[in-house]
Amino acid sequence: MTVAKSILQSIENASWIRRMFEAGKALKQVHGENNVFDFSLGNPVLEPPAAFVKALRDLANDPPPGMHRYMSNNGLAETRTAVAEVMSEQEGVNLSADDVVMTSGAAGGLNVALKSILNPGEEVIILNPYFVEYGFYTRNAGGVPRFVETKENFDLDLDAIAAAITAKTKVILINTPNNPTGKIYPQAQLTALAALLTEQERQLGTCIYLLSDTPYAKITYDGLKNPKLLGEHANSILVHSHSKDLGLAGERIGYLLINPDAAYRDDLRAAFSFNNRTLGFIHAPAMMQYALRSSLRASIDVDHYRELREMLCNGLRQLGFDFETPQGAFYLFPKTPIADDVEFCRLAQEHNLLLVPGSGFGRAGHVRIAYCVKEATIERALPQFEKLMSRFKQ
């Protein structure tokens, strides 16, 4: 056998998101692009803000000398300084440029962080439902994922988290607003979680990192804001990507932030820089780092995603779907009318609807619907959802 057994096993258990995306391509070849309603992939439909596009144009027309050359593994000092200024305001902590590492998106940042923190066999608590790649990222670093259920409405279950913490626990991974649920964890829950982690650190004599993944932090609705995360727990690390809030999923630009009060702060800085290089990222894309400085306070039009949310939620609620209204991101995670969510998704394909089973996110009996699509896609899909749901009515 020429391929590692662990990789073959991972491929077998690979993301349902991509699997459905590939199924969609086959359906589109048969029925045509406009007759297949693809809600499988969180691929932003909105274009980047004008300020970012202008910055790219200016850089292309008048590039700074050496713009495309190697740089520090941590990234451009000017960009890290700008990130530190903006995120200090947002998080309520005093970050310096040395607390910032520019990364190849959140995926790159999470892999760098976990590789830097974990010894083989140490555990990462992942809250269920979860973005499926978290398990793979943990295993990439030799860690062991421990999946802990959230409550029925997707709130944190602090008792379940406390019961899962052992002497091997090194990280708890938080994703808010959450993929796949759209849940925003309330600030009070994060404060209580931080107190729990601090007490567990004291009792166990260990360091437990609160690792936050926040690509949807600016995509929030109904007057809600994403909680401040870095200031809640001294041993905290924040990973952000501009894939969603600036519509740059294909550009792979993001950053890691280290809480200035973190234990082993200098060691973390050195480890992140080292692993950014040795994991093969070297450093984040240069042109994106230059362009990003002008857009750190910018965002895509969140109201547009809110309108898409309302259109989809109102339509599906009338058809009998049961769900928690998403508070952020651009995903809906309703319960399926039958227990077998994989079968439900298979039946949905018969109506040219591409959905992702909740089993792929660790919560069976649900389905994820990514509504970062064109308005016409939702309008034309709702009659197909009606036909699908009619199959389950008595």
Can you describe what's shown?
The protein is of the alpha/beta class. The chain has two domains: 5-48 and 300-390, Alpha-Beta Complex (Aspartate Aminotransferase, domain 1), CATH 3.90.1150.10; 50-295, Aspartate Aminotransferase, domain 2, CATH 3.40.640. The chain contains 13 helices and twelve strands. The protein has a seven-stranded mixed beta sheet with strand order 2-8-7-6-5-3-4, with helices on both faces. Helix 8 (187-204) links the parallel strand 5 and strand 6 (209-213). Helix 3 (50-61) packs across helix 10 and helix 11 (302-318) packs parallel to helix 13 (375-390). The longest helix has 18 residues, at 187-204. The radius of gyration is 21 Å and the shape is globular. The N and C termini lie far apart (51 Å). The mean pLDDT is 94.
What features would you highlight for this structure?
394 residues; alpha/beta; Aspartate Aminotransferase, domain 1; Aspartate Aminotransferase, domain 2; 2 domains; seven-stranded mixed beta sheet; three-stranded antiparallel beta sheet; 13 helices
Question: Would you kindly provide a brief summary of this structure?
Answer:
41% of the residues lie in helices and 13% in strands.
